[in-house]
């Protein structure tokens, strides 16, 4: 027993002190924990209220979509961890247990949203600073991103080996972290470590050394940094030695050096098509006057007797090859109906992975789509009939109606709609895709144009209109000038549906001929429609 001698009790005071310290420490941690949870609650509440004010507008903003996914993945994990270290009582109300029936995004979703943001950044030349402040093209659309948002975004990109973009976002995270004074599950040193390691992986040893030194200044005992520094320094020395030797011409090695990829060299290495695509997406290219002066518009009454009663507004967007837009060819009712029918069947666009033979999500095409049959709905059949009327082509071998919705940063890289000879596709359709009719079922607030990379033409979506072009020359050969793409959606949601018309059934309507040059799509009309109605 200790109490019998005061001297023996004395050590108890130490224990006592320890308990005070421990308890203080524990309470401080609990308070921090509750503080962090309260902070999450405030953000969730604030964002939810904003979202409910105007849901499509809120979710149509890529930054809001990203931060929503982040809140439901990374932040939710954080909250859960916080709660787990709490009492049994709190454990019993764990969020996930109680809401098993609601949807949660996955970490893949977070990565996807992060990649979408960098795609938008690159295509539309957006600055990290603007995005992180919630600005798109000069207008503020969302609450600024926090240091934590930027950090998680940087981390997702880093994990996808996109070190350039990871660096930009980590730098932004650092900038915000210093000002924010928030309890985060990561430290300033963690950000600095990502920055230095990204520099290293990009081959920029000098910057890697610089940033590792910064890290060691704020956390001198950081063991990985302390280990990496001499490694980087040695690598740099060797590299400089090699460079010196090479200048003298006595390395005996081939003259190749791994240089850090500068930003400029990155953008210069883009293919001409990529550059054309991005400029067109930004709406920066204008058609030359030789083309624009040939572009006319009129009411179309030919191709089918029905059009005499209901003429269609048609406008040339390009001549030879002819790209035509038909305005007001889908009604609001039809649009809503088609969207509602398609949505429950949506699947992510997939491709066959040649290595595994499995269907994997296609990176060149980020969207969800579904197919609708004429037989299942009078509305779908009506749309097919309308396509027949306005194009004058037979629908006997056309594909079903494809309905597509593009998500955050959704896009479709440059492609042809026709199958190349070697692809051997479309046998069951009696021939190649002779024509495309692409209906727009939404306006798009920013981005989302359909662009023709060979022609230098951008078409910005207009709800209810349809673009039409022939993919094949009269000889049946694919027309390379029809190469086109769907630009990433910057703000808003893009809905389209399309009808692909095949060669089979057109033998008498558009007999093929061996001339390579394509003729005009629409036959000349005898009289303008206005005369009928006057
Ligand atoms: O959505 C667009 O603007 C173009 C879509 C497209 O080219 C396609 O689905 O083949
Ligand atoms: Fe296409």
Question: Could you explain the architecture of this structure?
Answer:
- By secondary structure, this protein is an alpha+beta fold.
- Helix content is 46%, strand content 15%.
- It contains 20 helices and 19 strands.
- Strands 3-4-5-16-12-19-10-9-6 form a nine-stranded antiparallel β-sheet, with helices on one face.
- Strand 4 and strand 5 form a beta hairpin.
- Helix 3 packs antiparallel against helix 7, helix 7 packs across helix 9 and helix 11 runs antiparallel to helix 12.
- The site of 2-oxoglutaric acid has 8 residues, from strand 17 and strand 19.
- Its cofactor is L-ascorbate.
Write a short abstract of this structure.
This protein is an alpha+beta fold and 534 residues long. The chain is built from 20 helices and 19 strands. 2-oxoglutaric acid (AKG) binds next to strand 17 and strand 19.
How large is the radius of gyration?
30 Å
The number of distinct β-strands equals: 19
On the 0 to 100 scale, the average pLDDT is: 84
Residues in β-strands, percent:
5-15%
Shape: elongated
Low-confidence stretches: 1-6, 91-99, 256-266, 523-534
Strand order of the largest sheet: 3-4-5-16-12-19-10-9-6
Helix fraction, binned, reads 40-55%
Structural category: alpha+beta
For the sheet with most strands, the description reads: 9 strands, antiparallel
N- to C-terminal separation? 115 Å
InterPro entries: Oxoglu/Fe-dep_dioxygenase_dom (IPR005123), P4H_N (IPR013547), P4HA-like (IPR045054), Pro_4_hyd_alph (IPR006620), Pro_4_hyd_alph_FE2OG_OXY (IPR044862), TPR-like_helical_dom_sf (IPR011990), TPR_P4H (IPR059068)
Subcellular location: Endoplasmic reticulum lumen
Family: Belongs to the P4HA family.
Cofactor: L-ascorbate
């Amino acid at each position: 027993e200790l109490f019998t001698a005061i001297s023996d009790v004395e050590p108890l005071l130490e224990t006592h002190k320890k308990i005070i310290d421990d308890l203080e420490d524990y309470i401080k941690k609990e308070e921090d924990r509750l503080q962090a949870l309260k902070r999450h609650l405030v953000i969730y509440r604030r964002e939810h209220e904003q979202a409910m004010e105007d849901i499509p507008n809120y979710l149509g903003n890529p930054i809001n979509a990203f931060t929503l996914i982040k809140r439901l993945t990374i932040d939710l994990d954080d909250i859960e961890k916080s709660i787990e270290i709490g009492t049994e009582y709190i454990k019993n109300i764990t969020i996930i247990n109680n809401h098993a029936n609601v949807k949660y995004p996955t970490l893949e979703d977070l990565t996807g949203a992060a990649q979408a943001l960098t795609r938008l950044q690159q295509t539309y030349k957006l600055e990290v600073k603007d995005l992180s402040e919630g600005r798109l093209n000069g207008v503020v659309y969302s609450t600024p991103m926090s240091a934590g948002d930027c950090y998680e975004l940087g981390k997702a990109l880093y994990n996808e080996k996109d070190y350039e973009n990871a660096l930009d976002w980590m730098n932004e995270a650092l900038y915000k972290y210093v000002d924010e004074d928030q309890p985060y599950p990561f430290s300033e040193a963690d950000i600095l470590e990502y920055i230095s390691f990204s520099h290293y992986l990009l081959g920029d040893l000098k910057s890697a050394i610089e940033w590792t030194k910064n890290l060691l200044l704020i956390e001198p005992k950081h063991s990985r940094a302390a280990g990496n520094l001499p490694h980087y320094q040695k690598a740099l020395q060797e590299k400089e030695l090699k460079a010196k030797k090479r200048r003298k011409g006595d390395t005996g090695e081939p003259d190749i050096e791994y240089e850090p990829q500068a930003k400029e060299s990155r953008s210069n290495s883009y293919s001409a098509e990529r550059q054309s695509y991005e400029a067109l997406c930004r709406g920066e290219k204008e058609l030359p006057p030789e083309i624009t002066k040939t572009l006319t518009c009129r009411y179309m009454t030919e191709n089918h007797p029905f059009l005499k009663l209901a003429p269609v507004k048609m406008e040339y967007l390009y001549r030879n090859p002819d790209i035509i837009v038909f305005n007001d060819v889908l009604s609001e009712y039809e649009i809503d109906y088609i969207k509602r029918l398609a949505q429950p069947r949506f699947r992510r666009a997939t491709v066959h992975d040649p290595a595994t033979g499995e269907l994997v999500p296609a990176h060149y095409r980020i969207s969800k789509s579904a197919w609708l049959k004429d037989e299942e709905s009078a509305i779908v059949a009506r749309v097919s009939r309308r396509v027949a009327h306005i194009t004058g082509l037979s629908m006997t071998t056309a594909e079903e109606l494809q309905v597509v919705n593009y998500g955050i940063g959704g896009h479709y890289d440059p492609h042809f709609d026709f199958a190349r000879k070697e692809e051997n596709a479309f046998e069951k359709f009696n021939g190649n895709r002779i024509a495309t009719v692409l209906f727009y079922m939404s306006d798009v607030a920013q981005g989302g144009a359909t662009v023709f990379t060979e022609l230098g033409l951008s078409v910005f979506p207009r709800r209810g209109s349809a673009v039409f072009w022939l993919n094949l020359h009269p000889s049946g050969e694919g027309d390379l000038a029809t190469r086109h793409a769907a630009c990433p959606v910057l703000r808003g949601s893009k809905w389209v549906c399309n009808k692909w018309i095949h060669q089979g059934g057109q033998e008498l309507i558009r007999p093929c001929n061996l001339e390579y040059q394509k003729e005009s799509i629409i036959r000349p009309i005898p009289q303008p429609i206005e005369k009928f109605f006057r």
